[in-house]
Amino acid sequence: MTTILNPGLTTFIAAKNATPQAPTALLPRETFNDFLQGLGPVKLLLVHAPAGYGKTTTVAERIEALELKSAWYRLEASDNDPTRFGSYLANALNLATEGGCQHTLQTLKDTGFESLEALVTGVLAELVPGDEPLFVVLDDYHLITNQEIHDAIRFLLRHLPANLHLVLVSRTLPPIGVAQLRMQGLLVEITSRDLAFGADEAQAYLENRLPFELSRESIERAVRRVEAGSQHCSC
User: Is residue 152 pLDDT above 70, yes or no?
Assistant: First the structure.
């Protein structure tokens, strides 16, 4: 069943479209630079891992460190409403492009849209293609269970401008045609195995936080245990 997006004024909570602030003294994850630079035809960067792996923190820290342009949408269960989802998605892009989706937001306020796909169409038509990459981050996407929203994301991915890359941060694989995107070479994945510290990163992290020194052997043993748990989680 298609939901009609009725006209009306949306009051936006600024924090939902704000880039998360990285904790102080965070260990730089420079190994992820290649995931964000030179993506070429890749349309979707999928960051999926169980809770506690630092998915959001890693993405936010690297985007800030590399000075990449981004639009953020921090999702909650209430964002399963298509009107709310479409409004915040358009607002995120409008903020990132300095008013590039103003007409879509005005239309939503004045007349509404016949469907979420129609709103996404309006956003795509209004965005001006450019050379600078823009990362559209949907954080906590595992909270989305509405098939109408999943279908709209599929539609968005099929018609993304070349300079836009969608980043989904999720605890689970989203039902948006991941296998097809993977086969077409349009998907890059960051999993729990990638997010887990290697021995060098773990040593640097612990040296900055512990008042005593751990042996390299102890650190490597701990890393192997984490890797074993990561493999179990991804099975």
Answer: yes
Say what the pLDDT of residue 215 is.
58
- CA pseudo-torsion sign 18, 19, 20, 21: negative
* Residues contacting 50, CB < 8 A, separation 6+: 171, 192, 233
- 116 touches 86 (CB < 8 A): yes
65 and 164 co-located in one domain: yes
142 and 128 assigned to the same domain: yes
Task: Please list, in sequence order, all residues whose beta carbon lies within 8 angstroms of the beta carbon of residue 116, skipping any fewer than 6 positions away.
Answer: 3, 5, 82, 83, 85, 86, 148, 149, 152
Least confident of 48-62, 179-193, 210-224: 210-224
Phi, psi of 17 (to 5 degrees): -110, 20
Residues 202, 170 within the same domain: no
Residues 150 and 120 in one domain: yes
Residue 109: which domain range? 14-193
Q: With bands split at pLDDT 50, 70 and 90, how would you rate the model's confidence at 221? A: low
Backbone angles phi, psi at 44, to 5 degrees: -130, 125
Is 5 domain-assigned?
Answer: no
- As a whole number of angstroms, the distance between CA 40 and CA 55 comes to 22
Question: pTM of the prediction?
Answer: 0.85
